[in-house]
Amino acid sequence: MSVFGLTDAEVIAHVRAVSGDQHDARGVRRLFARAAWSGIAEPGDRMAGVVVGSVGADVALEALLAGWSAERWQAELSHSGVGTVTAAEIGSAVDRWAPRLNSAQVLRSLSHAARFAVRLLTPEDPGWPVPVDELSVHAPLALWVRGRLDDFQVVERSVALVGARAATGYGEHVTMESTVGLVERGFAIVSGAAYGIDGAAHRAALASHGTTIAVLAGGVDRFYPSGHDALLTRIVDSGAVISELPCGQPPTRWRFLQRNRIIAALSRATVVLEAGWRSGSLNTAGHASQLGRPLGAVPGPITSAASAGCHRLVRDYGATLVTGAGDMAELAGDTVTERVTERRSAEQTRVLDALAVRSARPVDDIAARSGLAPADVVAVLGVLHLEERVVEHPGGWVRRS
Amino acid sequence: MSVFGLTDAEVIAHVRAVSGDQHDARGVRRLFARAAWSGIAEPGDRMAGVVVGSVGADVALEALLAGWSAERWQAELSHSGVGTVTAAEIGSAVDRWAPRLNSAQVLRSLSHAARFAVRLLTPEDPGWPVPVDELSVHAPLALWVRGRLDDFQVVERSVALVGARAATGYGEHVTMESTVGLVERGFAIVSGAAYGIDGAAHRAALASHGTTIAVLAGGVDRFYPSGHDALLTRIVDSGAVISELPCGQPPTRWRFLQRNRIIAALSRATVVLEAGWRSGSLNTAGHASQLGRPLGAVPGPITSAASAGCHRLVRDYGATLVTGAGDMAELAGDTVTERVTERRSAEQTRVLDALAVRSARPVDDIAARSGLAPADVVAVLGVLHLEERVVEHPGGWVRRS
Questions:
Q1: Which runs of consecutive H residues, i.e. helices, occur in B56-196?
Q2: Which of A8-17, A42-51, A365-374, B109-118 shows the lowest per-residue confidence on average (mean pLDDT)?
Q3: Mutation test of the interface with chain A: which of B323, B328, B330, B331, choosing the one with the most A Cβ atoms within 10 A?
Q4: Hey, what domains does chain A have and what are their CATH numbers?
């Protein structure tokens, strides 16, 4: 536990403050590494996804601190089946990560998080929102969660409602009506807490006692926009305000765009309720399309500039025209849950096949036998453990007979 | 010229009053037969299309008067490659046509037409709107035209603008703006002269000095709806009010539905501007789709019942969402003209191939050699004649060398 030269006690205290005390030494080290990575790599950094997914967050962080050469990285990554990574790619990635290797900053973000009752959620956590993993190498490395919600499996029945900040009365009205209808149908509402459509969606979800999740582009310790302070505080009281960025990190233009990919990836369907011709919500829509998630757009008067982006989505980008909560629920009744469940079940089968009943096997061995990335193996073992189908021993994992 | 036992003079006088005096005896007989058929068969009568298309309107009328047996019809039709026609089909068709074999009524509709300066247009006429022939056996047998327009080739650059009678201010505003934009781009506007959207389209076309065509569900001697008397009179002054029904025929529910197929078939694209969930304009939209013509729908507020049909067309029936004249023009920039031109050119080639430079050949001979229906041969000869590529002799037609 010599990471960053910190003492075990320092690391354990900081990590437990944001993740509870059910983790063993290795678990704590991994969580600490995830926390560090979430501040080292910018959101959506493909190479960070590759190295963390291949060797694990902890090993990747240690390697970074140890100053592995590009060749060493290439050799290591070539074992894990992530495809070709050039020396230039890994070299430039290490160059952009190195300036952020700052132990004080990691500890500060953790203690900051603890002060705001922010939890650190990682893919190993059973409450992790599995659909975001479909972002693959662009998936968030961790999520910082502020709020009451602690199991993000709710997103398997969710709709992202997004749209213009400069919403019209029509747009806000339709957003509220749609939100109420979706909440009645048991859907969680995901949005970005911006003024206009986002705010209307969150507000209507709260008013109808639904679950709502706000995804921010900066640390969840500081609410943005500040004019939505009261709204975000209310979301914390019943739902969750989340971010892939650690506390203390400000939102940037890039982070807003990357935040949109999380909104899309968290939700079974994304619906744009009002959007100008060049609205940022078209970016969220683009992410939903790239993920193969259903995309809906609400039409409006063609005389309203605030609906031009919605019409564009329908005409040129294959969005489904939706006219209310019924349509939106139908749209979200796609096969995402089935796909995720299927993939999960396939991964579970592969991990179980890679386990023995008598001899304990370490994660790396299971990864090699199953053909899954170590991080995925850890995630699947977590679920199997909860279901009491595997047992952890000092030397690794065994399958219960 | 013993049709109906009328004298030659009677027939010639009546026909010339609605079609000018450039027709020879056979031409007059054919026109008279088309006029008669347009009153004998209800709009869209498939069997009427089959028999007229196969043996020609004049022969078909004579056969009907002569009381051909079903077997005789079958034998005759089997030569002309229209596919199988059962004895029951032809029998029941003859049964529904027989009660309408009324020479007085044909003469009355012709003199009525003459009084209102209505012209009789048939597929042989160079001004015939060729795109309606894509309705094949459901094509109109004749068109009665009241107005200034005498060459319907203008429809090769036209858009049908249709919609609800119960239009909103938004719908009428959008219709007018769109119409003006289309007229500026050189499009003719086709519609049904109904209250609401149709009326707004015609009115805006007139106001912007565009060409507009109103298609009625009854004879053009009596304007419907009567509240649009002044509007229809203005359309007559610059464009055309047309119907496939002869003068004196009232509109019926069936005729309204069939009228919609003419609106769709006349236009390169059909756009629905406002329509309730069960609006009659969805019927026009259905005809456009069946014809493979581009179909557009203008969105509106989802809170407006008058836009529900438009949204339905986009979501469930593959209509393109259009937001203004630019979109509509693009939609109409489809390949209808090209398709029609191609087909025409193919037919011309076949007819020219079937002609000789020295020996004159009658239409039936040309039809047999070219594999085209006699009616089509006559239509193609008409065009070739205008282009001075063929010459008519007493014994038939020759190709100019």
A1: 57-66, 70-78, 87-97, 103-115, 169-184
A2: A365-374
A3: B323
A4: 3-127 (no CATH), 148-334 (3.40.50.450), 337-399 (1.10.10.10)
